Amino acid sequence: MVIKETRGTENQERLQQSQAEWDVYTGNIKPYVEAMLTERFSASLVREVPIVSSINILKKTTDSKATLYNDEPVRVFSDLTEDQKEKVTRIYNDMRIDFTMLEANRLFELQKKQTHVLIEPMNGKLRARPLKAHQLNVVNSQTNPEMGEVYIFSSYDKELNTNAEESQRQDGYNQAIADLDDYKKSENKFIVWSKNFHFVMDKHGNILSESVESPIAGVLPIVEISAMKDFNYWREITNDVADFCIFYNTSQSMLQQIVEMQGFAQAWLKAPDDLMPQYVDIGPNRVLRLIQPSGGGEVDFGFSNPSSDIGGAQAYMESLLAQFLSSQGLDSSSISGQASSQNYGTGIERLLAQIERFESSKESMALFREAEQDIWDIVKAWHNAGKITGLLNQKYITQDLPEKSEITITYLEPQNIMSDAEKLEIAERRMELGLWSRAKALSFLDDIPLHEAEKMILPEVIVPMVDDSDSEDME
Nearest to residue 367, comparing CAs of 214, 194, 235? Predict the structure, then answer.
């Protein structure tokens, strides 16, 4: 029954939308631009339009917001011995946790602020895998529809996505070698996870696994990271960034059509039918022949020059882009049609730019801190079970990790990085006000201890050589 419902229209639309978001994010924008143009024009006309599909606003916007793991955070584990800390550090490093959480942070921003992370053993070590929304189906709780109880993994049939780009390299058959149809290997298999059960079943619901019990009974190895819901498991929010990315590329395609159609003069020849020459060659371009009524018609030749406002159209597109980026809380200069680079005049400007990105991730920081604790609980469960099941390599095994152990994670915050000119100006100003000595200024400029700066500033005291015979006279 559940497998049948996963193939229903409602769920397939959700899966297709998630696949479309991932397609656009990874640069496969062209088929979606063509689909939008086809809705407005005939297919024959769309084939003549130069398709612009390389301006990936969705990826730029998503990556600009997902900044929590751009720099490696600091994790501190409580109630662990030195040996346990060493083994846990090895587990986390081999699990590539920072890379995984960076991808999860991006998926969180990409897919309506909701994503999942799966922690499972593979080849003797733990693997952390971020999941896209079209890779899983969820049976939610009967008492709380916002919580998931059973997670079912299966590969999404990409052929169901009508906008997916057809490739001549893809024949729709999964070959023995690696090809674009590899996902079909698990197309008719469903992997089931709950707190107490874990098994594989076929498309008819027949269990294929020898055991159905979870090796970490009582712990679900899937972490959901989600913003506020509305009594549904899946956040039903329109992905306006993905929609705008497709719309913007479509508009740029239409603008490119205007440039090509009206960016050059059209040669024309006007004459009666009996005087119209059969062949007229003017360079590589065609001549538009305008036949006049016979008798009295004159032969005329000329060029028609268009007067379209291409500059105004381009200015409109840039204004539209700036308004959209502003609505997303991003600097309009992050994506620009002008050939310029982002420079910071002072360290304060750089700090403010960092703070703006930092504040944009404040909303998700608390959610990811909670997710890190959930991941730690799963890691503890897998480690402690691995001593019995042998699912983990012995190099990761130590004494049972205590259940009360917690993790504290600290994300990198913005720092004020001043230029040399700014530091020198501060030092000179404070010396003028009498607040700093020369030694204090040197300590600040060269970032050295004050006592070393004082040795460098104070002149050496020259003590004259004294003859012992004259010591009494000197006294």
Answer: 235
pLDDT band at 150 (very low <50, low <70, confident <90, very high): very high
Task: Give 378's Cβ-side CA count (13 Å radius).
Answer: 23
Q: How far apart are CA 173 and CA 226, in angstroms?
A: 36
CA-wise closest residue to 235 among 17, 4, 9: 17
Do 265 and 258 meet the contact criterion of CB atoms below 8 Å apart?
Answer: no
Q: Residues 90, 95, 101, CA angle at the centre, nearest 5°? A: 125
Tokens of 255: 């603008």
Distance CA 329, CA 322 (A): 11
Residue with the larger pLDDT of the pair 356 and 271: 271
Backbone angles phi, psi at 197, to 5 degrees: -130, 150
Q: Structure tokens of 13?
A: 């639309």
Share of the chain above pLDDT 90, in %: 38
- Mean pLDDT is highest, among 47-61, 65-79, 89-103, 315-329, for 89-103
Task: Decide if 140 contacts 134 (C-beta within 8 A).
Answer: no
Beta bridge partners of 301: 269
Q: 127: how many CB neighbours lie within 10 A of its CB?
A: 14
First to last CA, the chain: 111
Q: Which two tokens stand for residue 325?
A: 């980026």
Ramachandran angles phi, psi of 331, nearest 5°: -70, 130
Query: What phi, psi does 249 have (nearest 5°)?
Result: -65, -35
Over residues 287-309, the pLDDT tens digits come to 666 666 666 567 676 666 666 66
Q: Which residues contact 186 (CB under 8 A, 6 or more apart)?
A: 154, 155
Beta strands (DSSP E) in 278-398 are 287-292, 300-304
For residue 70, the tally of other CB atoms under 10 A from its CB is 14
How far apart CA 128 and CA 121 sit, in angstroms, is: 9
Q: In which residue are the tokens 């590589």 written?
A: 284
Of 358, 369, 412, 430, which is closest to residue 101 (Cα–Cα)? 369
Alpha-carbon span 164 to 161, nearest angstrom: 5
* pTM for the full predicted model: 0.71
Of 194, 23, 15, 22, the C-alpha closest to 109 is 22
Instruction: With CA atoms as reference, report the closest residue to 243 among 47, 388, 36, 439.
Output: 36
Treating both helix axes as pointing N-terminal to C-terminal, what angle do 240-262 and 9-25 enclose, rounded to 10 degrees? 60
418: Cβ–Cβ under 8 A, 6 or more apart, which residues? Answer: 346, 347, 426
